Amino acid sequence: MKKFLLGLALVLVLASTSFAQWGSNFEVGRRYVHRPEISVQDEWWTTMGSTNATDSSLEFRGYNHVRIDYDITGSDTVIDVNLQCSNDSTWMSGDSSTSVSRDMYKVYDLSGCADYNVYIEEMNGTTPAITVYATPFNRMGE
Asked: N or C, fewer C-beta in 10 Å, the chain?
C-alpha cells in the first residue's frame, strides 16, 4: 500500500508540474545573450542609415513577445536603448525607447518583423556598460 501511495503521489507531482509549464498557454523560446558587455553606444544606424545590416540582430519569427533583460555596470549609469525592427531590407527605430539605470527587464510586443536588435542610443555615467539578454515567447490568444 505504501508503494501505491508513493507512486500515486509521484504521478500527481509530475502531472501538476507539467501542467504548470505547458498547460498555461505560454510558450518560451531559448534565452540569447544578445549584446554582451557593450561599453560604447551604437552609431551604425544614425551614421549609415536604415538599410545597413547589423550582426547583432536576432530573428524571433513565430513569437509575439520578447523579454529583454538589461544588466548594467558602472557608477551613476543611465543607458538609453531602443528595440529596432527590420523587414529584411530596412531597419526601423521603434517608439520603444527605454532609459535603463539599474538591472531590469521589459517585455515588448513583437510587430511581426523578421529581425530585432536592441540599439544602444546613449550611455552616461562612469565606465557604463550593458549586457542585453533576449527571451522570445508566445502568449496564446494574442
From this structure: N
Question: Are 56 and 115 within 8 A, CB to CB?
Answer: no
CATH architecture group of domain 27-139: Sandwich (2.60)
Residue 117: what residue type? N
Note the pTM of the prediction, 2 decimals: 0.75
Residue 85's CB is within 10 A of a number of other CB atoms, namely: 21
- Please give the torsion angle defined by the CA atoms of residues 49, 79, 85 and 61, in that order, rounded to the nearest 10 degrees: 140
| Chain mean position to CA 69 | 6
Give strand pairing partners of 124: 78
Domains in the chain: boundaries: 27-139
Dihedral sign from CA coordinates of 75, 76, 80, 83: positive
